[in-house]
Amino acid sequence: MSKGKSKVTFQKHMMTGVSYMIPVIAMGGLLQAIGTMIGGPGVAKATGSLAGVIYTAGKTEMTLVVPVLAAFIAYSIADRPGIAPGLLVGSLAVANNTGFLGGIIGGYFIGYLAKLIKDKMKVPAPMQPLMSVLIIPFLAGIIGALVMKFIVGPPIGAFVTWGTKAFKSMGIQSKFLFGAILGALVGIDMAGPIGKIGTTVANGMMADGIFEPEGAKVCCCMVPPLALGLSSVFFSKKKYNQQEQAAGKSAIMLGLFQVTEGGLPFLLSDPVHVIPCTVIGAAVAGGLSMVFGVTSPVTMGGIVAMPVMGNALEAIISVLAGVIVCVALLAVFKKNKADEEVHEEEIDTDIEFKME
């Protein structure tokens, strides 16, 4: 297989996972947004109310994002035998706090492992029907669980722990730099394991009575999905396929309510060009927010949290500045559709064939 063909195949597996992941993000994020809109910034604690139930349902749905991504990357590689062990390694990625990065690694590993077992393992004819439903998922699941626990989990977990300690030791004396680093961390992986380095520190400082980092967190977490969604509207025909255009509409809504994961479909489909733009845009929002002295007594909510935030107007200005910078950078650096090597038609055709 040529290098170009290999790259196309690798991306096709990723895009298959993304295509199944998008509805999960959209549903979970919108449920959280509706719950927050009804119940206000304190909805997470109001578990017995209607708003609390809706919000909790959305939060639960969001825990399925990584397992679905991993499962359908594995499905794209190995067909149905990859789904069950893919769900397992994705769930372990969530449990071990390795986020979508761990899920992607696990999904590809399980997919190729399941395909290897399917191609190479010979069993007696009476056991052949059990291969796809039991033997391959069982073997791949055991090996995948061990790999996630002892190989994938430790380095990512150690990096997150080290990064959290290093970031916390900075303090907030250099306010713009502190906020910019917090935003950059969020922009790298849409509040995934790297972003949680910053958000964990902000949450911890809020517990100590320091509310500026939390204000910066609210602002910078809104920027990536808002900017990517708006970019997909402004440059829809030039830079985004139909799948991304559909994801963009929900990303705008999710961004308004600070569901940063709304930007994941764009990041996963084109990380090389998307990540630098979201890093810089979120860094601008985080840095300005700290300079303006924006504070937040709540950990999330987006526009719903604004009324209870200190210097709310400045918070809006910070978010708008970050979004404008990010959209402008995407206009310059994101490739046009004609330049992409993987076409939506290839991916959709492959999905339809396998579902028949």
Write the layout of secondary structure elements.
Blueprint: H1 3-39, H2 50-62, H3 65-78, H4 83-95, H5 99-120, H6 130-168, H7 175-189, H8 195-207, H9 212-234, H10 236-239, H11 242-256, H12 264-269, H13 271-292, H14 312-333, H15 344-355
Explain what the structure shows.
This protein is an all-alpha fold and 356 residues long. The chain has a domain at 170-356. The protein is built from 15 helices and no strands. The chain has helices at 3-39, 50-62, 65-78, 83-95, 99-120, 130-168, 175-189, 195-207, 212-234, 236-239, 242-256, 264-269, 271-292, 312-333, 344-355. Helix 3 (65-78) runs parallel beside helix 5 (99-120) and helix 7 (175-189) packs across helix 8 (195-207). The protein starts with a helix and ends with a helix.
Low-confidence segments = 341-356
Cα gyration radius (Å): 21 Å
Which sheet architecture does the biggest sheet show? Answer: none
Run of helices and strands = HHHHHHHHHHHHHHH
Helix content: over 70%
Percent strand equals under 5%
- Could you tell me the mean pLDDT? 89
Structural class: mainly alpha
- Terminal CA distance reads 27 Å
Shape: globular
Number of helices: 15
Number of strands: 0
